[in-house]
Amino acid sequence: MPSALPLADPAPLDGLLPASAAEGASSRNFGVYLHVPYCRVRCGYCDFNTYTADELRGAKRSDYAGQAIEEVHQARAVLDASGLPDRAVSTVFFGGGTPTLLPVTDLAEMLHAVVGTWGLVPGAEVTTEANPDSVDLDYLLALRAAGFTRVSFGMQSAVPHVLATLERTHDPARIPLVVEWARQAGLQVSLDLIYGTPGETLADWRVSVEHALAQRPDHISAYALIVEDGTKLARQIRRGEVETPDDDTQADMYELADRLLAAAGYSWYEVSNWARVDETDAGGQRHRSRHNLAYWQGHDWWGVGPGAHSHVGGVRWWNVKHPAAYAERIAAGHSPAIGRETLDDETRRVERVLLLVRIREGIPTSELTPAGRLAVAGLIADELIVPADALRRRVTLTLRGRLLADAVVRRLLEA
């Protein structure tokens, strides 16, 4: 949840959506994202909308679950009044921040509010992010009892000096413990990694990937470190205290990760995400993050909490950032949304290309303009897309294409 909010039109205080948002809604999944904006410490690389205890002036962490539940109730009223059909929730995702800094009873109450408001589809995915040092076995057991199905641990690295640069506080030795506890609780497990940290070598990165694979998680995400303006890391780089991440080194790290993951039985399904393949699940479908896939596939979701973003039927909006401002709006019975935009047909088309190209199944060439379809031959020649899939009229990325996904999108759109 990036901290900077985009510029757009003011959102109405009642939150009502235009009639266009309901068009085709019955064919789209509906998910709920709950943003928990609290962290024990602020990591120097992080640009998310998060707050430590010292930064929470005017807001109490203990009041947050009740405020989020009130927004859930608001959301149902807004969707009903805006003509959206009644849809059960396909995925629920608690992100942050560190959701597991809240008492597990708070997360359970928030989840139960979602379930009581909309219901869940059979086999719905319910995930929370967690830091390895923010949970124990009892906490994870309580999550499972409350209805959670999946936990995503922010591992980032297994190398102490890399974790220190990222200002992560956990001990790498805790990763096997929390993964085993999650398994005992009956939760699926995802591990999140970051590569390209200043001072991180290719050998360091191999240690981290191999340490993650040794735990046999169901899912692994690996994201290149991006230096965001306004972060402590950006200031350190500007002052020359640490090196700028090197693009070539990051590319080497990505290729190494993909090779190690594939050899260990993991299949990529989005540029930065891999799912474990089972004998009965050749494509790793069961272990994919269905909530994140909903973003890439253009489904609907309501984002609850300070700074949370939502998207329903081509209407995108975002809430006020600070927890105190959020609490004030909720208490007044107003929508917490501060800005929104209604996407025109061309913007929706461009975004669909940008997002679908990133996933393994790619995008049908029928969704490209005639000029975009003409660009396919050149992308094949440059070994950026899979030739056999292109013959079946679908654009899918090669390994080289994944490294240059943004360039592929530009050529499909600019041709």
UniProtKB/TrEMBL annotation:
This is Heme chaperone HemW. One of its GO terms (molecular function) is 4 iron, 4 sulfur cluster binding. The keyword DNA-binding does not apply. Belongs to the anaerobic coproporphyrinogen-III oxidase family. HemW subfamily. PANTHER family: COPROPORPHYRINIGEN III OXIDASE, RADICAL S-ADENOSYL METHIONINE DOMAIN-CONTAINING PROTEIN 1, MITOCHONDRIAL. Gene3D superfamilies: Aldolase class I. Residues 24-267 form the Radical SAM core domain. GO terms for cellular component: cytoplasm. Its main location: cytoplasm. GO terms for biological process: porphyrin-containing compound biosynthetic process. Probably acts as a heme chaperone, transferring heme to an unknown acceptor. Binds one molecule of heme per monomer, possibly covalently. Binds 1 [4Fe-4S] cluster. The cluster is coordinated with 3 cysteines and an exchangeable S-adenosyl-L-methionine. It comes from the Bacteria.
